[in-house]
Amino acid sequence: MGKAIVKCVIATYGIEEYVVEVTCESSDVDEIIISRAWRQLKADEGGSLPYGNRSAEILKRTDE
């Protein structure tokens, strides 16, 4: 089981950037990892996120 560090960006009136660490398998595709990061971020923020255009990128991925 490895880990991935994902940067999530929400373009509101100001740019809000979040960095999330999620677990992943070496066979997981990027879209699954990014989906997990958004789900974890939403849970960490109390169940809701601000409206705005969203983007995410995987900064680092380790397979341990």
What does this structure look like?
- This protein has a 3-stranded antiparallel beta sheet.
- The termini are close together.
- It is elongated.
- The protein contains 1 helix and 3 strands.
- Strand 1 (2-11) and strand 2 form a beta hairpin.
- With 64 residues, it is an alpha+beta fold.
List the helices and strands and how they pair.
Elements: E1 2-11, E2 15-24, H1 30-44, E3 53-62
Antiparallel strand pairs: 1-2, 1-3
How helical, in percent, are the residues? 10-25%
Contiguous runs where pLDDT drops below 50 for at least 5 residues:
none
Count of extended strands: 3
Number of helices: 1
Shape: elongated
* H-E string: EEHE
Distance between the termini: 6 Å
Overall pLDDT score:
93
Given helix and strand content, the structural type is alpha+beta
Instruction: Specify Rg, calculated over alpha carbons.
Output: 12 Å
How much β-strand is present in the residues? over 45%
- Kindly report the spatial arrangement of strands forming the biggest sheet: 2-1-3
How does the major sheet shape up?
A: 3 strands, antiparallel
Features:
64 residues, alpha+beta, three-stranded antiparallel sheet, 47% strand, elongated
In short:
By secondary structure, this protein is α+β, with helices and mostly antiparallel strands. It is built from one helix and three strands.
